[in-house]
Structures are given as C-alpha cells and as structure tokens.
C-alpha cells in the first residue's frame, strides 16, 4: 500500500511516498481504507526530529498522522464494538514507526473508532477528533465545577477553539485570548469574555477575574508569562513539554492525548457533539496526499484556523 513517510528528519521536503505491506487486523481491530488524514502539529514534531528519542531503535520509514476518516474494509475477530465492513468511520491513530494515518490503509483498535459524523465531508471528518479529544482531556484533568472561570489561550486555534466550545457546554465561564481578527469566531464558540492577545493580557484577565481564574488551558504555550492569572490553588493544563513550577498550590496537568486514544466513550461523545452542532468542523485547506510537503509548509507558517487535511484517492475495495 502507499503511505507518506520519512526516512530522515528535517523540513517538509523529507516527506515522500513509500510502499508498505498491507496491514492485517488482529483481534478487536478493524482496517480502515483512509479517505482523509488530518495534519497536526504532532506530525511536524515527528518530521523535524522533536520526537526522535521516542522513535530511537525503530526502523524507518516513519509515518505521521493521528486523525483519519475512511471506510472499514476488513475486520479482525472478537470485535468489541458494532462495526462492520463498509462502515464510514473516523479514528484516532496512536502512530509510531510505520503505523500512521498518512496511509492508504490503517489498522485500529475498535476503541479508537467511531462512526463518521452525519453530513460531514471526508475532509471535515478528518479535521476534528485529535484536537477535540485533546481539549476534552484537558478539561477533564481539572474537573472544574459549573460556574468556575476558565482561561483559554490560543482560543482561535484547533485545540483552543474546541476547549472554548466544550468548556461552555460544561457550564464554565470562559475568558478567551486570541488575535483581534478572531474575536467574532471565538465569541461564536461561546466565550463569555474576549481579550486581544496584543493587550497586556495578564492585567486584563485579572481585571475580569479578580484573584485569578480557577483554571487555564494554555494552548498558546505562554507558560510562565500567563501563570500569574491563575488563582492560588488553581489548575493549569499544558499541551507540550513544560517543567514549570508555578507554586502557590497551583496544579499543572501535562496532557498527552495518546493516553486516551482508546477511550471510545469519549471519542463517541465528541462525534455526537459534532452531529448536534455543538462542535464546529473547520478545515483550513486540503491537499492530495502526494502534496504532503506543501501541506506541512503551510502548517509551519502558523496562523491556521482549523486543520489542513490530506486526501487519498478513492479506489475499489481490495478483494
């Protein structure tokens, strides 16, 4: 089968087509014929060598990709979910080595798969799951009560936007930080208060929440610059590497979405929220899989509102 991978770390141009053996689903697994695959920052981290320690000892090519949408074309024995050949699904891929979403076919545990949201295109279906699941995990890590105040940085980004939408659905008061040009979109997500990131953000937050916010989802990775906005005994969710010690009884929750890649109940719940209209699907651009380098160049530029998606051509089912 065809996949897009890399044999050496570097810039976008290290991505190239590779041929891999067609995977066979084992017990409790399904094989998905991929129609679309999301392009996430984690993919760029794999590509540029930021995750090299984790891949040490594995033989390339390495295949990026954690978000897929496609059709089940084979099943293994002992399925733990009502899935069948022909079902249209979305799934999250705990990618490692040659196992990744930038592939014509990928094998997944049934716990990582849920039906494709009704009325969503393939590209839309591949754009949301990893980011929404990351946001959901970040919110659940803090377990704030309804009415508590949550600050979300990078609130117009893929994870930040879902954090705002999910937090509002949870009954939290949300203060959102983003670019002024994104105010309308962020307020559309339900944010109660908006702060332009070019303002003196810390003071503006404390003006809105004297004493500090109860929780922080720091998708913009402002780290030490934003921790003064959190009250004593508050909580912070961080999405990447940070070893900060804010003190004042503040708890820091490092978020690793891979640890939740088989949380089928939560994955299914997110799909239902998409179907109900409570979560927005945002595609920032699409590229044929062969143009993965171009997609990564756009990703590296930043400023995306939504996800770039790679598409794989539809082919007849394998016999």
From TrEMBL:
SUPFAM superfamilies documented for this protein: GroES-like, NAD(P)-binding Rossmann-fold domains
Secretion signal span: none
InterPro entries: ADH-like_N (IPR013154), ER (IPR020843), GroES-like_sf (IPR011032), Lipid_raft_assoc_Zn_ADH (IPR052585), NAD(P)-bd_dom_sf (IPR036291)
MF annotations from Gene Ontology: oxidoreductase activity
Start and end residues of each Enoyl reductase (ER) domain: 10-310
Coiled-coil regions, chain positions: none
Keywords: Oxidoreductase
Record EC number: 1.-.-.-
Source organism, top-level taxon: Bacteria
Gene3D superfamilies (UniProt xref): Medium-chain alcohol dehydrogenases, catalytic domain, NAD(P)-binding Rossmann-like Domain
Stated name of the protein: NADP-dependent oxidoreductase
């Amino acid at each position: 089968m065809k996949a897009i991978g890399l044999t050496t770390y570097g810039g976008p141009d290290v991505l190239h087509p590779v041929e891999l053996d067609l995977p066979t689903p084992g017990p409790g697994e399904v094989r998905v014929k991929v129609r679309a695959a999301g392009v996430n920052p984690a993919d760029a981290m794999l590509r540029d060598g930021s995750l090299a320690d984790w891949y040490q000892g594995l033989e390339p090519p390495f295949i990026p990709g954690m978000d897929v949408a496609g059709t089940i074309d084979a099943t293994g024995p002992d399925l733990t979910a009502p899935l069948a050949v022909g079902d249209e699904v979305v799934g999250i891929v705990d990618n490692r080595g040659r196992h990744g979403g930038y592939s014509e076919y990928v094998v997944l545990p049934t716990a990582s798969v849920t039906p494709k949201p009704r009325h969503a295109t393939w590209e839309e279906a591949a754009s949301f799951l990893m980011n929404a699941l990351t946001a959901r995990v970040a919110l659940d890590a803090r377990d704030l009560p309804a009415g508590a105040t949550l600050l979300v940085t990078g609130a117009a980004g893929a994870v930040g936007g879902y954090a705002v939408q999910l937090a509002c659905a949870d009954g939290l008061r949300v203060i959102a930080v983003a670019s002024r040009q994104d105010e309308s979109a962020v307020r559309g997500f339900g944010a109660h208060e908006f702060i332009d990131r070019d303002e003196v953000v810390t003071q503006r937050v404390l003006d809105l929440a004297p004493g500090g916010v109860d929780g922080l989802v720091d998708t913009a990775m402002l780290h030490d610059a934003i921790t003064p906005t959190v009250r004593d005994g508050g909580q912070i969710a961080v999405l990447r590497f940070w070893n900060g010690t804010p003190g004042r009884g503040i708890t820091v929750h490092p978020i690793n979405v891979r640890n939740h890649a088989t949380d089928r109940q939560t994955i299914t719940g997110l799909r239902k929220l998409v179907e109900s209209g409570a979560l927005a699907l945002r595609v920032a651009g699409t590229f044929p899989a062969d143009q993965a380098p171009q997609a990564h160049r756009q990703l590296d530029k930043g400023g995306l509102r939504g996800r770039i998606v790679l598409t794989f051509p539809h082919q007849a089912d394998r016999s």
